[in-house]
């Protein structure tokens, strides 16, 4: 149950640790952030160290510096003087008394007069009856910080507020926003803890105080919900920090906190990356240090990978398991698995303790090759191997590439005539340039070996590059592996290859063989020498070019020729007289029809008369209109 | 050879004479339909002749015109069969009903042809 919570902390609460590498951490507070927080506090303190004469800022600043272990940076005289002067003023209230008493405790001011004023304000407030939980906390905490006691009657009003907490099953619900509600609840916890220090809690209030403990899991369940805090909750950091302080002060033993809920709290604290005020700095430092140092909560364990690049020649993975702050974590064992990607078959690996929180695992015998792998490491505790931390890393199993010999062959374009052939041993280069005329091409063959790898390996890049000495233009030709022998590569190119990529650029080109891969510790770059390239001359009578031929990039960016639309050729039409003649001819049957109808004696004698004529005309008119409409 | 031609001519003349004699007995209504059928056939023939002499361009128009004529001829044949009093096949069918069918099919034919003509 605890390990996920610890994972969150491992990712987030690295506030004071020094650059531990933890993967899968979306929000990590680094030492750089810690320095930033410290800078914020010191800049707010100012050169005089009195935090701009703000008692509130002085309280939060003093607390933050104490948590950072930088009390030497605190100008005690300035803050003590500020506390005394604020309490001496007529405007001093309960809040001022609270801040001043806390400052006195942190800075060790020893101002008896100021302490008496603070006590007086706190007791007066209690006797007058505190209205909200924050006032109760301020009053009781002031007395606790001063080491004073409070009369039982004065405690009554503060403790009566706790009844509200009990009635609302652990969390005050009379505040509109989630953060304010949680802050009030946390102040209830803190007030109850302070009340136990400053006086005797009567049997009347004991059930309410004890009810706080039983309500904590329920509150955590509510707070852990994703919708509890909204973006509008600007005081969410205060709520979380006070809540953690409240739990720490109230729980008598390890609280049975849900890991996800604590993770939610830890995420909230991660917002401290954007802390811009002294108040924020204090809250995040206070809560994170309590979460990680209190014995009442599980301590976060972080797993860091010593090197994300492991040579395949000695495949060993080193991890360090540490507690917050960098001390070696007391875990009973570390287990892990390695797989090719997230969906690959995970192979278990066993880590061996090396001392000082360091663990080592050998990858020998796992039948793995070069490449990037996913490594999952988990720290376990106890005989039942409860997982207390887990981290996922990407590691590269690296190797090297060797090419001992390269053969450069200049052949005729018919590929049968060998015009020139040179073999080079690494890392020598051609002592004399090779000529590549329009009727020849260059074939570069080589065998790439990867020492210590039994399986076949195809590097991501294996190519020959030709760089023009005149223009610097680059021609790239991929080397292809032989199907029968995967380690044998060849690349063949000629002037036409150059023309396709950079145009008709001739002259000397430097030839370089490059083999690279993310799994190779170092890419192989072998400068083979130079070739002289010439292109076929232009046709006889053609004027010499006035400027160098365009490069591929220039050709790409050049203005394209205008688009010529292609239309279908119209069909052959007969002469107009032919069409007209046939039109007349097609009308002759109509003449025949009329003649024939007159011959057979057609007449309209049968046409209806009277009202029937109307219907008959309407019928034939309808037909005519239909045909007319169709046309 | 000459004799066979003369025989053919005399036989043809006899056939035609006999046909004319019989055709005069045909009801007027049937004769009108026959006139329309011949008219349709002649129109189709002229278009077919044009296709042979000039070509099919525009092809849609040629097909429309040709099949319109042929279609009209077929519908006329159907009408003739249905209104022929000497035929027993459609004895119970009223001539008005046959004419209505003819009109409906004719309208449909002309509608399709007009849309296909392009």
TrEMBL record, chain A:
Pfam families named in the record: Ribophorin_II, Ribophorin_II_3rd, Ribophorin_II_C
Protein name: Dolichyl-diphosphooligosaccharide--protein glycosyltransferase subunit 2
Keywords: Endoplasmic reticulum, Membrane, Signal, Transmembrane, Transmembrane helix
Ranges where the Ribophorin II third domain occurs: 405-532
UniProt domain Ribophorin II N-terminal: residue ranges: 30-291
Cited InterPro entries: Ribophorin_II_3rd, Ribophorin_II_C, Ribophorin_II_N, Swp1, Terpenoid_cyclase/PrenylTrfase
Domain of life: Eukaryota
Subunit structure: Component of the oligosaccharyltransferase (OST) complex.
Signal peptide region: 1-25
Protein family membership: Belongs to the SWP1 family.
Species whose genome carries this gene: Coccomyxa subellipsoidea
Membrane topology: Multi-pass membrane protein
Stated role: Subunit of the oligosaccharyl transferase (OST) complex that catalyzes the initial transfer of a defined glycan (Glc(3)Man(9)GlcNAc(2) in eukaryotes) from the lipid carrier dolichol-pyrophosphate to an asparagine residue within an Asn-X-Ser/Thr consensus motif in nascent polypeptide chains, the first step in protein N-glycosylation. N-glycosylation occurs cotranslationally and the complex associates with the Sec61 complex at the channel-forming translocon complex that mediates protein translocation across the endoplasmic reticulum (ER). All subunits are required for a maximal enzyme activity.
Transmembrane segments: 576-595
Pathway: Protein modification; protein glycosylation
Annotated localization: Endoplasmic reticulum membrane
UniProt domain Ribophorin II C-terminal: residue ranges: 567-627
UniProtKB/TrEMBL annotation, chain B:
Keyword Transmembrane: yes
Protein topology in the membrane: Multi-pass membrane protein
Alphabetical keyword list: Apoptosis, Endoplasmic reticulum, Membrane, Transmembrane, Transmembrane helix
UniProt subcellular location: Endoplasmic reticulum membrane
Transmembrane segments: 32-51, 57-77, 98-117
Described function: Subunit of the oligosaccharyl transferase (OST) complex that catalyzes the initial transfer of a defined glycan (Glc(3)Man(9)GlcNAc(2) in eukaryotes) from the lipid carrier dolichol-pyrophosphate to an asparagine residue within an Asn-X-Ser/Thr consensus motif in nascent polypeptide chains, the first step in protein N-glycosylation. N-glycosylation occurs cotranslationally and the complex associates with the Sec61 complex at the channel-forming translocon complex that mediates protein translocation across the endoplasmic reticulum (ER). All subunits are required for a maximal enzyme activity.
Subunit comment: Component of the oligosaccharyltransferase (OST) complex.
Family: Belongs to the DAD/OST2 family.
Record-given protein name: Dolichyl-diphosphooligosaccharide--protein glycosyltransferase subunit DAD1
């Amino acid at each position: 149950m605890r390990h996920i919570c610890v994972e969150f902390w491992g990712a987030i609460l690295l506030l004071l640790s020094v650059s531990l590498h933890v993967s899968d951490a979306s929000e990590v507070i680094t030492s750089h952030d810690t320095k930033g927080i410290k800078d914020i506090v010191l800049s707010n303190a100012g050169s005089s160290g009195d935090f701009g004469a703000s008692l509130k800022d002085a309280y939060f600043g003093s607390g933050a510096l104490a948590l950072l272990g930088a009390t030497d940076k605190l100008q005690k005289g300035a803050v003590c003087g500020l506390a005394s002067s604020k309490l001496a003023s007529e405007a001093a209230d309960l809040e001022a008394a609270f801040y001043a008493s806390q400052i006195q405790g942190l800075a060790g001011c020893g101002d008896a007069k100021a302490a008496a004023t603070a006590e007086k304000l706190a007791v007066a407030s209690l006797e007058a009856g505190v209205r909200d939980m924050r006032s109760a906390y301020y009053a009781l905490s002031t007395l606790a910080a001063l080491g004073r006691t409070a009369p039982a009657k004065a405690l009554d009003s503060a403790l009566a507020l706790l009844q509200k907490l009990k009635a609302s099953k652990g969390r005050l619900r009379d505040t509109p926003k989630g953060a304010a509600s949680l802050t009030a609840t946390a102040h209830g916890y803190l007030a109850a803890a302070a009340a136990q220090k400053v006086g005797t809690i009567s049997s009347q209030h004991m059930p309410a105080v004890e009810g706080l403990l039983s309500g904590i899991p329920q509150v955590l369940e509510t707070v852990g919900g994703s919708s509890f805090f909204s973006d509008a909750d600007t005081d969410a950091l205060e709520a979380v920090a006070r809540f953690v302080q409240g739990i720490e002060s109230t729980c008598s033993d390890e609280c049975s906190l849900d890991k996800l809920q604590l993770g939610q709290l830890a995420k909230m604290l991660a917002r401290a990356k954007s802390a811009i005020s002294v108040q924020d700095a204090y809250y995040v430092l206070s809560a994170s240090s309590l979460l990680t140092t209190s014995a009442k909560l599980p301590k976060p364990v972080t797993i860091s990978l010593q090197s994300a690049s492991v040579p395949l020649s000695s495949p060993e993975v080193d991890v360090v398991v540490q507690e917050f702050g960098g001390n070696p974590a007391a875990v009973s064992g570390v287990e892990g698995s390695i797989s090719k990607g997230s969906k690959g078959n995970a192979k278990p690996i066993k880590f061996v303790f090396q001392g000082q929180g360091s663990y080592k695992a050998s990858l020998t015998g796992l039948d793995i090759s070069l490449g990037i792998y996913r490594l999952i490491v988990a720290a376990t505790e106890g005989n039942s191997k409860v997982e207390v931390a887990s981290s996922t890393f990407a590691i590269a199993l690296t190797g090297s590439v060797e090419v001992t010999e390269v053969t450069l062959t200049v052949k005729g374009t018919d590929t049968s005539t060998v015009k020139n052939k040179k073999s080079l041993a690494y890392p020598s280069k051609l002592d004399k340039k090779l000529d590549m005329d329009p009727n020849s091409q260059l074939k570069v063959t080589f065998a790439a070996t990867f020492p210590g790898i039994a399986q076949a390996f195809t590097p991501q890049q294996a190519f020959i590059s030709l760089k023009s000495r005149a223009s610097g233009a680059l021609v790239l030709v991929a080397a292809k592996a032989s199907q029968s022998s995967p380690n044998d590569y060849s690349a063949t190119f000629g002037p036409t290859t150059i023309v396709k990529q950079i145009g008709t650029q001739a002259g000397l080109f430097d030839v370089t063989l490059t083999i690279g891969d993310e799994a190779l510790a170092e890419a192989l770059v072998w400068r083979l020498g130079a070739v002289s390239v010439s292109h076929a001359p232009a046709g006889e009578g053609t004027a010499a070019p006035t400027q160098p031929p365009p490069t591929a990039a220039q050709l790409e960016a050049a203005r394209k020729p205008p688009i010529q639309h292609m239309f279908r050729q119209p069909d052959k039409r007969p002469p107009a007289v032919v069409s007209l003649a046939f039109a007349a001819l097609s009308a002759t049957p109509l003449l025949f029809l009329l003649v024939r109808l007159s011959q057979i004696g057609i007449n309209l004698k049968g046409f209806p008369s009277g009202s029937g004529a109307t219907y008959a005309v309407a019928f034939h008119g309808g037909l005519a209109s239909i045909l007319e409409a169709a046309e | 050879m000459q004799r066979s031609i003369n025989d053919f001519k005399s036989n043809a003349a006899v056939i035609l004479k006999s046909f004319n004699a019989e055709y005069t007995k045909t009801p007027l209504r049937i004769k009108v339909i026959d006139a329309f059928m011949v008219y349709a056939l002649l129109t189709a023939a002229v278009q077919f002749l044009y296709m042979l002499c000039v070509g099919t361009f525009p092809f849609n128009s040629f097909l429309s015109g040709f099949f319109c004529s042929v279609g009209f001829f077929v519908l006329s044949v159907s009408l003739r069969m249905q209104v022929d009093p000497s035929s027993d096949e459609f004895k119970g069918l009223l001539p008005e009903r046959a004419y209505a069918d003819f009109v409906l099919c004719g309208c449909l034919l002309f509608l399709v042809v007009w849309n296909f003509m392009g």
